[in-house]
Design a protein that fits this description.
elongated, mainly alpha
Length: 152
C-alpha cells in the first residue's frame, strides 16, 4: 500500500510540475524552440509510461501480484534518454550544417540568418536534452519505487 501512495505522490508532483509549466508558458517556448518535435514524443512516452508504472505499482501494492517485472520500464527510461541525445545531435547538425552554407561575410543579412539558424539548432539540442533527461529521471524514480514494492 505504501508503494501505491508513493507513486501517487510522484504522479501528483508530475501533474503539479506540468501545470506550473503551462502557467509559465514553457510549452509554448518548447514548441517554438524544438523544430524536431522530439520533445513532445518524449513527453508522450513519459506520460504513457508513468500511467503504466502506476498500474503495475497498484497490482503489486494492492493486489499483491508479485509476477510483475520492471525491465521494460528501464528500457523505456533509457529510450527517453537516447531520444533526447538524438535531438541533441540533430540540433547540432542543424546548427552547424545549415548555418554556414550560404554565408557571405560582406553581407550583414546573411550573417544574421546564419546566427538565427545557429540559435534554432542550439535551442533544439538543449530542449530535447533537457526533456529527455528529466523524463528519464522521473521514470527511474517511479521504477525504483516499484522495485522496492516488488522486493517487500
Amino acid at each position: 500500500m505504501k508503494s501505491v501512495l508513493k507513486w501517487w505522490l510522484i504522479f501528483c508532483l508530475i501533474v503539479l510540475g506540468s501545470g506550473t509549466c503551462f502557467y509559465f508558458d514553457i510549452h509554448k517556448s518548447l514548441y517554438e524552440s524544438d523544430i524536431t518535435r522530439l520533445s513532445y514524443l518524449i513527453l508522450f512516452i513519459f506520460g504513457c509510461t508513468s500511467i503504466w508504472i502506476g498500474s503495475l505499482t497498484y497490482r503489486v501494492g494492492i493486489l499483491k501480484d508479485r509476477e510483475q517485472s520492471s525491465e521494460v520500464g528501464w528500457f523505456i527510461s533509457e529510450s527517453c534518454l537516447a531520444l533526447g541525445m538524438v535531438g541533441t545531435v540533430t540540433g547540432f547538425l542543424i546548427m552547424l550544417g545549415t548555418a554556414f552554407a550560404n554565408v557571405d561575410v560582406s553581407n550583414a543579412i546573411t550573417l544574421q540568418q546564419a546566427l538565427s539558424d545557429m540559435a534554432t539548432g542550439m535551442s533544439t539540442a538543449l530542449w530535447t536534452t533537457l526533456v529527455g533527461l528529466v523524463c528519464s529521471l522521473i521514470i527511474k524514480v517511479q521504477l525504483v519505487n516499484l522495485e522496492v514494492a516488488l522486493n517487500e
